[in-house]
Amino acid sequence: MTVPHNIYIHVPFCMSKCNYCAFFSRACANPDWRAYTDGILSEIDYWAEKLGKIGVPTVFFGGGTPSLMPTDNFAEIMARIRDRFELAHDAEITMESNPGTLDAARLDRFIDAGINRLSIGVQSLTDGELQFLGRRHNVADTLRLIDDAMSRNIRVSADFIYGLPEHTAKSVEKLCHDINKIGLQHCSMYELTIEPNTPFGKMNLNMPTNAEMADMYNIIGETLNLTRYEVSNYAAHGQECRHNQNVWDGDAYIGIGRGAAGRIFLNNVWYEQLGGGARFEAIENSTRTVEKIITGLRTTRGLLLAPDVKNALNIEYVKQNPELIEIANGRIRATKKGMLILDDLLLNLVK
Ligand code: SF4
Q1: Model pTM?
Q2: What is the spatial distance between Cα 185 and Cα 308, in angstroms, rounded to a whole number?
Q3: Which fold would CATH assign to domain 6-245?
Q4: pLDDT tens-place string over residues 183-239
Q5: I want to staple 260 with a disulfide (CB 3.0 to 4.6 A). Which of 54, 125, 199, 255 is the partner?
Q6: Average pLDDT in the chain
Q7: Ligand 1: which atom is nearest the Cα of residue 98?
Q8: What spacing in Å lies between the alpha carbon of 7 and ligand 1's midpoint?
């Protein structure tokens, strides 16, 4: 019997590409959903064969735009997961969605099929900004979907982007007040990063400076009614995304569908895995430990100081930089100041 694995399923289709997007997704309004679903079903069968009827604490449909999927296909995938694995009775089942792809009737069918957490790609509460970002929806579409979702018995999260060329700490503070008024229990606040090979990458945008970005990051933490529990994630108590927390804690997860990544733990060996059968390679335990440190330190609770973690850390650096990194109650975590320079901190921290 092997350990429980979380499941991530990638749906790499979108109505069109947003101006900033470097995710593995392509614009395709009418993909061959039958072929896509059959591929997902056979990957589920493959992993059930390989790992046995393991426990599954969480399932996360990410994208792309999973909410474009026909609801019958979604139900088929969920039924196969229930059949082949031990899906926990309280499993968290999240679907990412975009406004404009999900009316109330479709939302109900997704809920009937099993979703109990909806993550909505809101990005902005201003029509002009949505257009600039290349989003297809407007604020009215967004608020309708949030309303529909919040009036049902599911958990709701929303993604936002800050650090647009016109943004200041003041405008981001206003965004946070508007988010507070909506009454969300969870949201993700992502800093706009300019990726090459995107429309924004070719536009020579006048971006805020690092210091201005840091001010925006701080104002978000001070203004939102929710608590920051990871660099980009905020939640009311108990509303944290369990799937992501499990992954950040270093638990095992299967990536299904092209563009998905997983970490499989089988017969005491860690494997790096990519969906669509693209990769399945053993990795050193020490490599897995470093991954765990990188993701664990992004969370405010930090990570457990297990022996493998301890061995991989430069403890002298921890002792010399108490303003950046601290150890308490058997866990190591970055301080508020350390969070702001996490990439540099990690370079010094890991041996
Ligand atoms: S909807 Fe999301 S995944 Fe699709 S193009 Fe836009 S940002 Fe990328």
Answers
A1: 0.95
A2: 35
A3: TIM Barrel (3.20.20)
A4: 999 999 999 999 999 999 999 999 999 999 999 999 999 999 999 999 999 999 999
A5: 255
A6: 95
A7: 1
A8: 21
> Tens digits of per-residue pLDDT, 124-176?
999 999 999 999 999 999 999 999 999 999 999 999 999 999 999 999 999 99
Q: How far apart are CA 21 and CA 88, in angstroms?
A: 34
Does the structure show a pLDDT above 90 at 30? no
Ligand 1 geometric centre to CA of 64 (Å): 5
**Cα–Cα distance measured from residue 130 to residue 118, given in angstroms and rounded to the nearest whole number:** 20
> Is-cis flag, bond preceding 338, omega within 30?
no
> 20, 21, 160: which to mutate for ligand 1, most atoms within 8 A of CB?
21
- Residue boundaries of the structural domains of the chain: 6-245, 292-351
Q: Which residues line ligand 1 (CB under 6 A)?
A: 14, 17-18, 21, 23, 25, 63-65, 98, 121
Distance from the CA of 18 to the center of ligand 1, in angstroms?
6
Flag whether pLDDT at 272 surpasses 90.
yes
